[in-house]
Amino acid sequence: MRVNGPNCFIILVWVSVWTSRPPHRVAPTMKKHHFPxxxxxFILPKASTAxxxxxxxxxxxxxxLVVQPDESWLQSLVPGGCxxxxxxxxxxxxxxxxxxxxxxxxxxxxxxxxxxxxxLLRNAYxxxxxxxxxxxxxxxxxxxxxxxxxxxxxxALEILRYDDIVILDCAENxxxxxxxxxxxxxxxxxxxxxxxxxPYDYVLKADDDSYIRVDALAQTLKEMxxxxxxxxxxxxxxxxxxPDGWMTGMAYALSWDLDVVLAYWLRDGNRxxxxxxxxxxxxxxxxxxxxxxxxxxxPDTIVVHRLKDNPRWAATLAYFNVTQGLKPSKLYHIH
Length: 335
What we know:
Blueprint: H1 5-20, H2 47-67, H3 71-77, H4 86-89, H5 92-95, E1 102-109, H6 115-126, E2 135-143, H7 149-162, E3 165-167, H8 178-190, E4 202-207, E5 211-212, H9 214-222, E6 229-232, E7 234-235, E8 246-247, E9 251-255, H10 263-268, E10 274-277, E11 282-285, E12 294-295, E13 303-305, H11 310-319
Parallel strand pairs: 1-2, 1-4, 2-3, 6-10, 11-12, 11-13
Antiparallel strand pairs: 4-9, 5-13, 6-9, 7-8
Helix pairs in contact: 1-2, 1-3
C-alpha cells in the first residue's frame, strides 16, 4: 500500500513510540502482607525509565517541528520509504542524452594578442539562442605558436577558464598557410574520438571579424550532403559556375572528408562537387564603395563579415537583438 504525506509521518511517530516502550515484565508472585494505609503522594517512575521513554518522543517532536516542511527527507531515511525514490522511477534509457544528428566544428582563426576580440566573441555567441535542432556545434579559437611570455601566461588563463582554444604548430600568419594547417590538423586532433564515426560532419573556417548565427548555420547544413561538400559565399559574385572561383575567407564549410582540401586543390583534384553558394546570406557589412557582397542586414543571415571595429559589432548585435534579454535594474541605466 502506498502511503503519502503527513499520514506517513504519523505512522513513523507511532512506530517509534511503540518500539521505544520498555519490555513487558511479568510480576513475580508475592505473598499478602498487611501494611498501614500509605500517605497520598505522586508515584514517579525511575529516572532511567522516564528517560528511556521520553528521549525518543522528544527527538521525534524536534524532527517534526524542524524537518517536517521537507518531509521527503525523512521518508528517504526509511528503507523502501513511503514514497518511491525519484531515481527508482527514472528510465535510464530516457535519461541518456540523445546522439546529435549533426556535428559541426567552427574554427575562428585569430591571433594570440587579440584578447579583447575573443572576449567579445565569447559573449556574442553565449547570448545566441540555443540551436533549434539536435546538433552539436563546437566553437573554438585557432592560434599558431605563442612567441611571447605574456602570451603564454594570458592565453593559458583563457584555456583554464574557457577551454576553447586550439594552438597549431605553425608561425602566426593570416595568408601564408594557416588555413591549410588548420584543416590538415583536424584529423590528427580528432580522429578516433567519434566512436567509429567521423568526429564531425562539417568543419568550418571563419575570421575573427565574422559573426556567425549558429542556429542558421546548423539549419542550413542539416539539409546538405554529408560528403564532398564545399559551402560558402562564392567569388566571383553570382557566378558559381566559374571554375577558377572560390569561397570567400569570411567563413566556409567543408564536409569531413574534404577537411584537408582547400579551394584550389578542390578544382585540380576534381573534389568538392557539391558546391553550395549561400549568397546572399553571407555578406560583408554594408559600407561605401564595398565589394559586390557588401549589403544591408537581412533577417535570415548566416554570416556577417568585416566587423573590424566596435561600432560595427554594436550595429550587428543590435540588429539581431542580442541584448534583448537585458532586464531593468537600479544598478545600471542604459538608454
